Amino acid sequence: MERKFKEGPYRLIVWLTALPILALALVSPGESAPLVLIVGALSLVIVTHVRPGGIRLANAWLPALLALVLTLVLQLDPQHFLLWLWAWAAVLALPQPLWLLALNVVLATLTYFNNRAVFPLEQGVLAGLLLATVGLLAIARNLRRQVSWRSQRHYADRIPDVMLWSRHQLELDLPEEIARCQREKTHGMLVLLRSQKPRPSSLSRLLVDHARGYESCYQLDRHVLAALLISHDATEGRQRRESLAAVLPGTCQARFVTLVPGLELSGQLRALPRQSRPLIVLEESA
Fold first, then answer.
1. What number of other Cβ atoms are within 10 A of residue 13's Cβ?
2. Are 253 and 193 in contact (CB under 8 A)?
3. Alpha-carbon distance 265 to 239, whole Å?
4. pLDDT tens-digit readout, 57-102
5. Which residue segments constitute the domains of the chain, with CATH numbers given?
């Protein structure tokens, strides 16, 4: 999930990727390959700054653009860009849908075989084996992520235009956000909402509307939603909690828990349906 207050650093990462590509285009010989580099770098920046939600790097745009640039420059000018074959491992390691991962594997394989004649036989075989090994490690990383993505789509497909992650993803994000809040002295809050109705689309939209662009929402099961809300300090966190609590339906059970070391998601989930009041706030301890 996009971390708190990181829109600027994410855009900086894109610029740090695009600027060397532009610089390389200026010093590269030939005509076609430099043009591809310039268009690719500019497209990367434009998509990130103009497209709604463009800073969400865990989508198809970044790996698709980089894969297109790699394929074209290795096809147009393999003599000068042969080392870029190794960049395929980085592209395959980026978060991306399964169909795009498969497509990029095919493109990486084709670019290697199209350029294998440039290597001496022994070096070509060794390079192919090393590239395949590194690529398989990158693919394995992405396939592990697909479990969480499938759970996300299983819920989100039933709620159009609402991005919801799975319980598995929340279990991964929670300790990271707790550590980040401790390190950066910010205020974090776990929000748990339980509805009597299964798959409450209106409650999902309400929760997403109260989350910021760098925060993620989750659907843990048919009745329970969650969010990690990150604020600058406790005062802002309290204001956000009160704003959300004021619009919750009366039949909803809500639990607001400050992110502190030792917070256990499973314990909070067990307590949620058994709590004595519709709304429980735990300010300091889990």
1. 15
2. yes
3. 23
4. 445 677 888 898 889 888 888 878 888 888 888 888 887 878 888 9
5. 7-156 (no CATH), 167-282 (3.30.70.270)
Of 275, 110, 124, the closest CA to residue 192 belongs to 275
DSSP of the chain: -PPTT-HHHHHHHHHHHHHHHHHHHHH--SSHHHHHHHHHHHHHHHHHHHSTTTT--SSSHHHHHHHHHHHHHHHH-HHHHGGGGGHHHHHHHS---HHHHHHHHHHHHHHHHHHGGGS-HHHHHHHHHHHHHHHHHHHHHHHHHHHHHHHHHHHHTTSTT---B-HHHHHHHHHHHHHHHHHHT-EEEEEEEE-SSSS-HHHHHHHHHHS-TT--EEE-SSSEEEEEEEESSHHHHHHHHHHHHHHS-TT-EEEEEE--TT--HHHHHHHGGG-SSSEEEESS--
Q: Is the pTM of this model over 0.85?
A: no
CA 231, CA 212: separation in Å to the nearest integer? Answer: 10
